[in-house]
TrEMBL record:
UniProt domain Band: residue ranges: 24-181
Alphabetical list of InterPro entries matching this protein: Band-7_stomatin-like, Band_7, Band_7/SPFH_dom_sf, Stomatin_HflK_fam
Record-stated family: Belongs to the band 7/mec-2 family.
Pfam families per record: Band_7
Protein's name according to its UniProt entry: Band 7 domain-containing protein
Gene3D superfamilies for the chain: 6.10.250.2090, Band 7 domain (3.30.479.30)
Species assigned in the record: bacterium (Candidatus Blackallbacteria) CG17_big_fil_post_rev_8_21_14_2_50_48_46
Highest taxon above the source species: Bacteria
Database matches in PANTHER family: BAND 7 PROTEIN-RELATED, BLL5629 PROTEIN
Length: 254
């Protein structure tokens, strides 16, 4: 074959390939994605998973990830009802349940979630006092979760979970709470010590009453002690009037 003809065919094939690539594009919609076909700016259909070739400038495929996703809401400074400044951060997980609604009505889902949850968090925290937020966090976190779930559902998004990530106090207040905690623990230790001493005193008082009513118990206790002692010097006791005392030899008469 004529070399010139071969070169011409090669150049023609390369030109057609280049033209085709400039004119068309390939897009893959994965199984975990929702894909939507737009033609001349109009949403025409929702696509099944697969690979599609589109005419550039005329058709476009937009995709959304339908897997569960996480979003961290960084700490923001918020004033409580009693005007104490806190820094609170959250983490949420969510699923897109209505991808068509999300695509058509929300410009940037993650950005909107971020801003909306910040506003919700601020409104809930500002309605509570510091003591409530710290000592009983479950009710206000549950309230925040319910509010967020209700409002996100209107966007076609399911809130799977909402958790408190960090709650930070100002430095001086943190030191004050640490001191209060220390004092409480010391007081608790003193109380337990006092209770133990009271229990010991009650036990001794009960034992004294028993000995007063039954003096022979002291003799039995002594015998038990002597039986269990080893390598001890021999002691001689005199028994009398229900009590034991060391034996003393009679004094010599002069």
């Amino acid at each position: 074959m004529n070399p010139t003809l071969l070169l011409s065919l090669f150049l023609l094939a390369g030109g057609l390939s280049f033209f085709y690539q400039r004119l068309f594009e390939a897009v893959t919609v994965y199984e975990y994605e929702a894909g939507f076909l737009y033609r001349r700016g109009l949403l025409t259909t929702e696509l099944a998973p697969g690979r599609y070739r589109l005419r550039k400038g005329i058709s476009e495929i937009r995709k959304l990830d339908r897997r569960q996703q996480n979003l961290s809401i960084p700490g923001q400074e918020i004033l409580t009802q009693d005007l104490i400044q806190l820094k609170i951060s959250l983490v949420i997980s969510y699923l897109i349940q209505d991808p068509r609604k999300v695509l058509q009505e929300i410009e940037n889902l993650r950005n909107n979630l971020y801003l909306h949850l910040q506003i919700l968090l601020r409104s809930v925290v500002q309605a509570e006092k510091l003591e409530t937020l710290l000592e009983n966090p479950s009710p206000w976190i549950t309230h925040l979760q319910e509010q967020a779930r209700k409002e996100l559902a209107a966007w076609g998004v399911e809130l799977c979970s909402l958790s408190l990530k960090d709650l930070m106090l100002p430095g001086d207040l943190k030191r004050a709470y640490a001191q209060v905690f220390k004092v409480q623990k010391e007081a608790q230790a003193q109380l337990e010590k006092a209770r133990g001493e009271q229990a010991a005193l009650r036990s001794l008082a009960n034992a004294a009453r028993m000995l007063e009513k039954n003096p022979e118990l002291l003799n039995l206790r002594l015998i038990h002690t002597l039986e269990n002692s080893q390598n001890s010097p021999t002691l001689v006791f005199q028994v009398g009037s229900g009590f034991l005392r060391p034996y003393e030899p009679p004094a010599e008469k002069g």
